[in-house]
Amino acid sequence: EPEVTQTPSHQVTQMGQEVILRCVPISNHLYFYWYRQILGQKVEFLVSFYNNEISEKSEIFDDQFSVERPDGSNFTLKIRSTKLEDSAMYFCASSTETGTGELFFGEGSRLTVL
Amino acid sequence: SQQGEEDPQALSIQEGENATMNCSYKTSINNLQWYRQNSGRGLVHLILIRSNEREKHSGRLRVTLDTSKKSSSLLITASRAADTASYFCATVPIQGAQKLVFGQGTRLTINP
Fold first, then answer.
1. In terms of C-beta density within 10 A (0-12 exposed, 13-18 middle, 19 or more buried), how is residue B84 classed?
2. Nearest to B101 among A45, A48, A107 (CB)
3. Are A66 and B13 within 8 A, CB to CB?
4. I need a labelling partner for B23 at 20 to 30 A (CA). Which of A91, B7, B74, B108 fits?
């Protein structure tokens, strides 16, 4: 069964360092998303991406964050200069519909900022 | 409270019993979805109910939606130990339909 894959599963970084989280969405999906979940808290929307551009982003998704689809398969989230409060589980998701249908989530990348 | 608030926050029942989780939301929605998350894992879609639907079934799952009360419930019948997980409702607002808005979740424990 097709699935969304994310790498790395866990990354530890020092505050101020750049981090890139990678995702391979399901191949025939057109809409891509990043969500995050701080430990013990709810899952929060970060950004949606369609047709090679951001279609919507949340207040969390500030200038420190960027997304890119560098080729036909990968979808990346970059955090330019990590802060302690960026420590969270980051989930990539994809869907065939524009956020109104079922989302398929990856297993997540746990980011720990020291 | 935030969009998509579940209650109870935690529920512990015996295997074979039914589990009911509730979700309330604030804004008008396109649809409401329920997701399951095993500890430390990704979210798995369970069921989607559209704003013009009142009830939907999928296997042992039954979801209801009351748009006048802005609430939904998820019923899992004949629970199994493998149903132990966190369950989240997520709404798709009519405005800003590019995203899901998740609630805090209900932590369900099924005791064998």
1. middle
2. A45
3. no
4. A91
